[in-house]
Amino acid sequence: GTWVAMAAGLLSKSTTITLPAALLLLDVFVLSGRDLQLVGRRFVTRHLPGWIVAAAYLMIVSGNGWLGRSLAQQVRGPWEQGLTQLKAFVYYLVLLVTPLHQSVEPQFAEQAAFGAEVGLPLLLLLSLLVGAVWLARSGRWRALFLLSWVVLHLLPTTVVPLNVLVNERRAYGPLAILCVGAGILLASVRRERVVRVLAVLGCVILGLLSVERSRVWADEFSLWSDATRTAPRMSRTHLYLGNAHKDAAQHEVNPATAERHWQAADLAYGRAYEEARELDLQLRALNNRGGVRLQMGVQLFYQDRARARVEFLAAEKHFQEAVQRNPAYADALVNLGNVTIMSARAATSRGESEALLRRSIAYNTEALRLRPNHSQAYSNLGVVYQDLGEFDSAINAYQQALRLTPGDWLTMKNLASLLYHSTPAELVPELGPGQRDVVRARLAESRTLIRRALRLNPAVPNGQDLLQAIETRLQSLPQEG
Questions:
Q1: pLDDT tens sequence across 37-55
Q2: What is the pLDDT of residue 272?
Q3: Mean model confidence pLDDT for the chain
Q4: Contact indicator for 150, 135 with CB cutoff of 8 Å
Q5: Residue 333: closest CA among 346, 316, 357, 350
Q6: Which contiguous run of DSSP H or E holds residue 208?
Q7: What number is the average pLDDT over the span 102-124?
Q8: Half-sphere exposure of 328 (CA within 13 A, CB side)
Q9: How many Cβ atoms sit within 10 Å of the Cβ of residue 409?
Q10: Is 123 exposed, middle or buried (0-12, 13-18, 19+ CB in 10 A)?
Q11: Is residue 20 within 8 Å of residue 51, measured between CB atoms?
Q12: How far apart are CA 127 and CA 148, in angstroms?
């Protein structure tokens, strides 16, 4: 059963691969009484299956390319990784002893040079090694096993460079192990009343801390707002706070409230770009900020075309900068195509509008060359072809986008609108019986699409109006027979 559980664990978290080594340490230090001959005799029946599961897992992740791609990413060099994780060791130790001032994204910087920031953690680590030798010499094997298991559990994230430098969840395993150690320590206290008081007091304190922390995790706003307060220099906290505001704005029915969310998202993405040290985070902040300015322009489009053009130009500037930083950044190319569509709609002449729409096709086609399954690129092409009057091409593009992303409510709405408007109301009385069947099928499909879109997002722009118009036209069609 242990090895079945290990296999299931590996499907969830790669660090489970340390389990065979941990159980071997358990057998050596505790179960066998350090009788290596006994451990050797039962290695095949008790330990070998775990090593086979670990080997099979490594073969799978190597064969499918996941391990190679992960190791090939140049996150940081071995020297920087070693120094950074020396600091991380102290961070985890302090977190385990005093679980206060927690954050989903802690304030923690990469370490590239040897200094006091790593000198003191190195001394602490050496003192723990001395303590481990003392535990072995004094025969405290259970304590030595628990200490070894903590180190073993943290070893994968210490050795392999990851984008996230430190994270509280990496301390969950060591914390569970230390709880076992705390139980052993309490059991060694001879005064039973003292043990009960300490146990109850510890549970009450940790329980209160858990309740307080759970309130922070109530929703994305409380989580990422807390993170920006505790770690204001970490780019990712501002990026995800911006995402929370952007998603809220897209699902908000009240225009004034949506406007406040768009403004807050713009500020958050701007701060994320200022604090970002990695190119990936800089590109995401630029792209997302451009997306916000684009949406703000869309909101203004029918009220104030001049202000809308200002927002479109600001959005285009952010997207262009992202593409200049990385010409293969498909998301920014798609967004360039998107903002070009809106600029075409705001153009003052038909020739200028058509030229801009053809440029949008070029942007989205290039994005599809880089990422053939980019659903937003297909959705944009649908909008372009619709604006050019090439309705069959637009329908095909929308349908391809929905095949790739079935939950894209905006593409559902656009396709529903196209199916509705492709047969003008004034032509309905002139249609023959067969043609009316085709129109009825199109309108029924359009109604299904807009209903699905409204279920996913009740704030779909003009969604209720479109649904009502479709219902009205369906009722106006003469019934056959």
A1: 888 888 988 999 999 999 9
A2: 96
A3: 89
A4: no
A5: 316
A6: helix 192-216
A7: 87
A8: 5
A9: 22
A10: exposed
A11: yes
A12: 14
Rg over alpha carbons for the chain, rounded to the nearest Å, is 30
C-alpha span between 172 and 12 (Å, rounded): 14
Place of tokens 């779909």: 460
Handedness of CA 418, 314, 367, 459 (dihedral sign): negative
Q: What is the pLDDT of residue 481?
A: 47
Q: Ranked by mean pLDDT, which of 26-30, 406-410, 473-477 comes out on top?
A: 406-410
Band (pLDDT 50/70/90 cuts) for residue 313 is very high
For residues 460 and 453, is the Cβ–Cβ distance under 8 A? yes
Helices (H) and strands (E) counted in the chain, each on its own, are: 22, 0
Which tokens is 104 given?
């989903």
Determine if residue 76 is left, alpha or beta; phi over 0 gives left, psi from -120 to 50 gives alpha, anything else beta.
Answer: beta
Mean pLDDT in residue range 212-227: 93
Q: Give yes or no for a contact between 150 and 170, defined as CB atoms under 8 angstroms apart.
A: no
CA 324 to chain centre: 25
| 339 CB-near residues (< 8 Å, 6+ apart) | 290, 294, 297, 312, 315, 316, 319
Match 């000198």 to its residue by tokens. 119
**Sign of the Cα pseudo-torsion (394, 288, 164, 225, in order):** negative
Q: In the predicted model, is pLDDT for residue 285 greater than 90?
A: yes
Identify residue 62 by its one-letter amino acid code. Answer: S
pLDDT of residue 376: 94
Structural tokens at position 264: 């807050």
In this structure, the chain runs to a length of 481
